[in-house]
Protein 1
Amino acid sequence: MSYVDSIMELVIKRNPAEPEFHQAVKEVLDSIQPVFARRPEYEKNRILERLTEPERTIMFRVPWTDDKNRIQVNRGFRIQFNSAIGPYKGGLRFHPTVYLGILKFLAFEQVFKNSLTTLPMGGGKGGSDFDPKGKSDMEVMRFCQSFMTELCKYIGPDTDVPAGDIGVGGREIGYLFGQYKRIRNEFTGVLTGKALSWGGSLIRPEATGYGAVYFAQNMLGTRDMDIRGKTCTVSGSGNVAQYTVEKLNQLGAKVVTISDSNGTIYDPAGIDDEKLAFVMDIKNVRRGRISEYAEKYQGAKFLDGARPWSVKCDCAFPSATQNEISGPDAAALVKNGCILVSEGANMPTDPDGVKIFLDNQVLYGPGKAANAGGVAVSGLEMAQNSQHVSWPREEVDRRLHQIMESIHRQAFETAADYGFPSNYVVGANIAGYVKVADAMLDQGLV
């Protein structure tokens, strides 16, 4: 049995019933096998054994009261996976599907994503099985205050800096920050995604979506192509999807889909800025369902229970959740002429789908590279907080553009160096891994 295979066997044995974590680890291990022939010291120092085990796993009870004064109890988590290159950094997810395996997969991915950004950030992730949908603002506030009362013991601006994720937007970050400040009696950059008036960064809400489009531009550039005029499908209708659509519109592409958990909107005329503003009102203000779009705009169809991947397109931007593109979905995209996939979500394509994209020479940007813009600007927010300054919008966007170009260059050049030209999965995983592994070697057995 090879070294890599033995590690995978160990991970499955130690982490039973956590398929998402197994999938994330296997995807990385399969990609980085060529590294060990060049760098035997990694195996000698058992880097993989250490890198696949979180430095710290925190799980706690979150009691709170609803508006009817009934006691509710949820679980809270924080996975502090690796701090070799900086303080733990990664989002908080509030969703009923949250459990240990999901957060370990997300935290493991975050280690490599953060490594690629060129910024000094380790990897972590956290959250709760609490569902903010259908809850009043006061219920969300009471939950967030209870959650932070426990979490505050383990985080700090130089230790662990959480951000938002699914179910955790500006409202939740505000409540969490307020409770941290109240308990610790300090105003620090302990959370990112804050409002502009109290320490947030310009471009942070837009960063993941914008970054996924910038990465797509770089991939197209390797084939002397441009995003202008391309027909694009986008899944999701949250923060990432909204700003992916906005940036695609700015660059002259046409977006024809957007979706939520109930189904997909297909608008062959294109989701222009006016229609996007309506989507933002539905989702950000009224917290409604995307099906309302089809009731307002003639010619748009609501595909009940469907994802966007059967719609003909040039470029696809999966921006909803993990494993939303299956093997058959990927085959449908290829059959319909899709030439590029840039992942705004974390691990949205399952292994069968990834293989189909790579086998058909689709320009495939995996999430740890393509969606790193969000955490990159979180890192820039941390930098601004530590300096007690606020950079102008143009400066943050310029730095985001530079970081996405750097991530693309690292992935592209590393893939070529190891004999896998244009394979961004191999390139991103090896480039991210080597940086973290070298830092672990430098710091000794810790």
Protein 2
Amino acid sequence: MRYPVVTLSSPAAQQPDWPDPAMAAAVVTELAGLPPLVFAGECDQLRERLAAVSRGEAFVLQGGDCAETFAGANADAVRAKLQTILQMAVVLTYGASVPVVKIGRLAGQFAKPRSRPTEIRDGVELPAYRGDAINGFDFTPQARAHDPARMLRAYHCAAVTLNLCRAFTTGGYADLHQVHAWNRDFVRNSPSGQRYERLAGEIDRALSFMRACGAESDELRSVEFYSSHEALLLPYEQALTRIDSRTGLAYDVSAHFLWIGERTRALEGAHVEFAASIRNPIGVKIGPEATADEVRALIRRLNPDREPGRLTLITRLGADAIRTLLPPLIKAVQEEDSPVAWICDPMHGNTFEAPSGHKTRRLADVLDEVQGFFEVHRSAGTHPGGIHIEFTGDNVTECVGGSHEINPADLHQRYETACDPRLNRGQALDLAFTVAESYRTLPG
């Protein structure tokens, strides 16, 4: 296979400083010869699902770890995250009566952008942790050195994770008759878990009715599930970009859905150039500094043919700003007359430091930003198309609040994230119920 399929001429931000460029080149060449992690036809199917979202006919649930770790590529961790997505999707589908497009923030989220290239602790300065695909989390010179061989391990961990996801979602675990089984752990006795259990009982009765009528469908026994990550580490993404034999077009087969982050969405940058060159559905994070003109320019560059399902705008504006900053962005997109799916990332604009020094988020702020997202779209007559969140299936104590409340003094108990604070499963269910209630109040 010819490599690279996609060549880039623009400057690339947030890239590693490989100490041995020859070794990095050899790793990329090896990656380019490995099998695809996803297939072009699956990407096309997701683009069709996102087209329905842009028309107001479906809702996106996208979530997973802030930063995946190699250690997390195991059956228990993947199953716990999948449980969370399945439970949230059930709440949204049943509570809001809307089809839910399920996209995991997994099987590739191994690289992270950083505000500063280095980190200082007790007078010692080392390279910042940039995700397991680049360097290690431990604060030692050996761990923090940029190592291109980690890209190969990232590929293999992504393959393991996707294999597990496919097994769980098609092998019976995602069967809708299993709604109670997804709730048999720490979350069951929480207020949100008890609320979910009541909803699961209603679903049981509905399924029994369908069975009695002879109307059960095979679609209840498996789910469509798609993978996504930030397309940050360009050598990795370029190495996994292939020409589809059906169409002769380029697809990044590292994931179904790729997004460009807030720090790398420069119109003349390499990340936008790369995204424009592939056929996958693409997302762009839109932060509080984004202007209407910038959003228009990104739309023209990334979706010049105005193709439904091609482009998703993921707003990360903050609870205190979304009601002010989102309306002019929506107006700009309306004036551009190009179909987009709007998704709310209520996590990244609501981070603060607790007195203990832990970086955290208040669930109340997360919920408030989601409510603001719905309010603005309701006022504009546009469709609030989904949520993009950072969560884990474990009983962590990283975000404060929730129906089973975590206080700032509790953060130290199970603060396990490799980067940003995540919702635990009970908090994620709290969010799902709030979103379902907000969706039910939409006009029409």
